[in-house]
Specification:
Blueprint (H helix, E strand, L loop, with lengths): L10 H18 L6 H14 L6 H11 L14 H12 L6 H10 L4 H11 L9 H8 L7 H4 L2 H15 L2 H13 L7 H17 L7
Length: 213
């Protein structure tokens, strides 16, 4: 039975909006001094050079993920062994179950935002970053999404499925190549490119503070 809090996404509608919004966004380009854009490749490269991932890498990874978030991290779980197994599965190209996502979510202060960033840095071609700006874009609403929507695991999995489907389309590869050119050759995956269009379109429209993309 479907959870009433679970959000479903209209892929065709979202693809249409991303293509349109990218045409506007690319005219302005990106701020080369944006700290998120400067730090992003360093975080991804850190995990490229790590195999297998162990507790040491997990703890370091969590803390640079929280450098992109507006709060200090403290552990609410110590399920390190299972979390490390999950991360190595992702590092090997695997897909996590809802139960495994819940394990990581529990370790990261019940935050799917933090979980998504950690997963993305480990495998940027499989997991897309998830935050409130992205969900607001997807929902086409002016107010920020409720916290319960951000923490709903099935909605998160629906989002990952949506993004993986979109990233395989030709339009996503075109956007990806153009973003890489605008970032002076910085490598980003199609998943990252699509998420950037949503995030920066929302930021352009609403301004204000964000969850440190």
């Amino acid at each position: 039975m479907k959870n009433e809090k679970t959000v479903l996404f209209n892929q065709a509608r979202i693809q249409e909006r991303i293509v349109k919004d990218w045409q506007e966004l690319k005219q302005k380009g990106f701020d080369q001094h944006d700290s998120y854009l400067i730090s992003y490749p360093e975080f991804v490269n850190y995990f490229k050079n790590v195999n297998p991932i162990n507790k040491h890498h997990l703890i370091i990874g969590i803390h640079f993920v929280y450098g992109w978030m507006p709060r200090v991290f403290s552990f609410t779980s110590t399920d390190f062994d299972e979390s490390v197994r999950c991360l190595n599965e992702v590092n090997s190209g695997g897909t996590l179950s809802d139960t495994q996502i819940e394990v990581l979510k529990g370790l990261l202060k019940n935050s799917l935002v933090g979980t998504s960033k950690l997963l993305h840095f480990i495998n940027p071609s499989r997991y897309a970053i998830w935050d409130r700006r992205v969900l607001r874009y997807l929902l086409e609403q002016d107010s920020m999404p409720h916290h319960y929507q951000m923490k709903e695991t099935q909605t998160f999995l629906n989002y990952q499925a949506l993004m993986n489907n979109l990233s395989e389309q030709d339009f996503a590869k075109v956007i990806c190549r153009t973003i890489q050119e605008k970032l002076n050759g910085q490598i980003v995956s199609p998943l990252r490119a699509l998420e950037m269009v949503m995030f920066y379109t929302d930021k352009k429209k609403y301004g204000g503070k964000d969850e440190k993309q």
